[in-house]
Amino acid sequence: MPNPFRHTTPPPPKSATGVTAAVYAQLAEDFGIERAVTFVVLSSAPEIMAAAWALMRESLIAGDGDRTGKELAALGASQANRCPFCVDAHTMLLHATGDHSLAEAMVRGETPADERHARVLAWGRASRIPGAVELTPYPFPGAHAPAYIGTVLSFHFINRIASALLTENLLPGNVQRFRAVRSLGGRSLARTVRRRPPTGAGLALLDDPGPGPDWAHGTTVGPAYAALRDAARAGAELLDEDDRNLVREALQAWDGTHPPLAWDELPDRSRPGARLALLAALAPYRITGEDVTAWRKPIHTDHRLVHLVAYGAFAAVDRIESALPVRTAKETS
Fold it and tell me: What is the pLDDT of residue 159?
């Protein structure tokens, strides 16, 4: 089977212990894919792996709201982020919900026939743009906002991890591009996708997370988001103060667009850490082996590379989250 990993060599899942093994067990039970490569690739940094899984589980899988709607929101974010791996994954998961015609309409680039579905997809796409006016009003019940917001923020992070550290192929040879394979793959996950497990199991993997942002108050999405925020921000220690300031200022000025090929603000490889972090935030699909090699030193293990990429990826999530035109969970209840 072709190697799906770029720039890192994650530990074999069969050797996993502790929290990593617990994540794999929950993936099998609640996601239907024990060794989902989007989480295997994070396993060199178990604290990031566990928090990323907890946020996805508590929002997309166990959170309030319709699974089809949340898959469409995640698909919209993945399209906006130009992550073909995740676009293909969510298309297959739409098949798993049982809405095969909707899944295939997404492959053809059509607008969903159902107006609510169309609005949710557009909302997910708009979520890449900090403070986009298209994000209000919600295209879902206000009580479901924590789960929907948690879902899109989860995938703004996962999209960047996938684009930076995985190949584009969801399945070997890109066979998911065939309708029969998409449909069969979805059907194999249908039983898991169509049930909603109880909330909270993801939090059991975390080390005393905070309550999280106000928009998720009183839900399990909030602590999961706080845990991922804290784990990802730890990667800032891999940069010096000047590089951290460069990343911070670039994100503050970011308007949600994809950087041009002639990206003047991107530092060259003489500042490899800042370069990798900014690429992970705004154009992770442009990270090359040369970029990673320029940063690598004997102390720069895969654990540290995952932390640096996660730091950059979450810098973009943080910018998006801070500009969301949201009401608090208290206000929507």
Answer: 98
